[in-house]
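SEQUENCE-TO-STRUCTURE ENTRY
===========================

Subject: a protein chain together with a token-level encoding of how that chain folds.

Sequence line: the amino acid chain in single-letter code, read from start to end.

Question of interest: how does this chain fold, as expressed in backbone structure tokens?
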Amino acid sequence: MCLFGIAPTGEKELVAIEAILHHKTRRQNAIMEKSNLGVTHTEDLPIEADEKYDINEITDKAKQGAEAEHNLAPLQALRLYPKAIFWCLVVSACVIMEGYDTNLLGNFYAYPEFAKKYGKFNEASGNYQLTAPWQAGLGNASGVGSFFGTLLNGYLVMKFGHVRVILASLVALSAFIFIVFFAPNTKVLLVGELLCGLPWGIFATTAPAYASEVLPMTLRVYLTSWTNMCFIIGQLISAGIMAGLVNNTTEWSYRVPFAIQWFWPVVLFPIIWFAPDSPWHLVRQGRHAEAKESLRKLRSNPSEEELQESLNLIIYTNNLEEQLEVGTSYWDCFKGFELRRTEIACVVFSGQVLSGLNFAYNSTYFFQQVGLTTTQTYHLNVGGNGMALFGTIVSWILVMPYVGRRTAYVTGMFVMSIILIIIGGLNAKTSDHNIGMAQAVLTLIWTFVFQLSAGQLGWALPAELGSTRLRQKTVCLARNAYAIASIVAGVLQPYFMNPTEWNLKGYTGFVWGGTAFITFVWAYFRLPESKDRTYEELDILFARRVPARKFASYKIDAFQSDALP
């Protein structure tokens, strides 16, 4: 099969005809769109059925667009793409709600009034406790809902686009919050968390995919990983609210935190209503005139030539993937070299859980079990969120601009495994209050390292490494791999820690230290470097089956006629 736009002499006409036939069904719609948008020249539509159109022009402008991406510095990109950055920040803000609730419910187990309402008095511990099965059930309910919401999102975005799907999800979430707010018992609370998980799964997978499609290469890792920052912001807000209400002796100590979740849909819905859809999505739908207008809305005073270069690069990459026989279904994610991309995306994302997330990240329940007071516990919880925020900022300033994605992920995973093993080793002296505090401080250090590595890149890499035609579905599969790992960890973790079950306390660090080390070994051999690579370059690197450790140094020109294997 010939590479679109760079076929050898004698085949150009055939490729041009194939391109025209491929878009024939869009011709009338494109003409109508051109008229509605005030376009007066057919040249403004780059690939519609215009017999006089030079098929090589799309390759030339695409190459110019790719060169412009490589030469674009981050500060320059900030000046050229302020609108795109704004819309990415707004769309990603939806994820704040999931981070808020994830931190909320997990830390309610040690919350006196919540435990009194939904738990039972435990003679051994001398206080109210939720049983381990209910801790596992409630902790994983939203994860189960998120799993199905994520799968559904892969289909919805393909049909309706990112913006419409987000708006509908905000409406649904507003209704589901009523269930958790008024829940009279654990059963109703579980149902409410399950339903809330559906839109959360949509938010968490739409935000990084949208960011990767509206920003240039130099900014994409910052705004795809910004999704992780939104989680941290949500967790920090919930930690602060819980620390302020922990001594309240009424039911409002836990109902008020639930009610605050209504704030986000009310604020975000009217703003996102005006957000432009992804130009990549529009090109995949054959709506090139709309894609060009979307690019215009995402940039600051762009020239027609710049818009055309960017649009042609998108069209070129899409057609390149068609030549590589990349489809658009979930099944296509498991065919040929796409299977490798899916594997990497899924393991990288689930690596967040395997690195010890359920144990070491803001674990107030762990702090309580090693003997810290309630006040110390919730103050450490706030400190942990502050450490996460600090780690993210350090990552953006000192790590991402200078260190490769692969290097950061591999190093971070190794360091986290060592920290967890040390926590396990210290458990031999848990009767000493100072040892318990040392273990708690080590979890804060772990949190910092996590945000320098897997915490950021677990979000960024799936959106970056998947092919453009399968990006949304690759992100969805990666997110669900994370969800499955999180559900398993969420079931096991209460049993590890609960004093009425296995009561491992700090010894749990040995378990998660082992899984973190296994992930480190996998990453060393399987995780490729994607820093400074455009999407068409990544397509060809994967198609050529280049080994992971050679991605960074491999020389390639994606616009040469022999670029494909």
User: Anything to note?
Assistant: DSSP finds 26 helices and two strands in the chain.
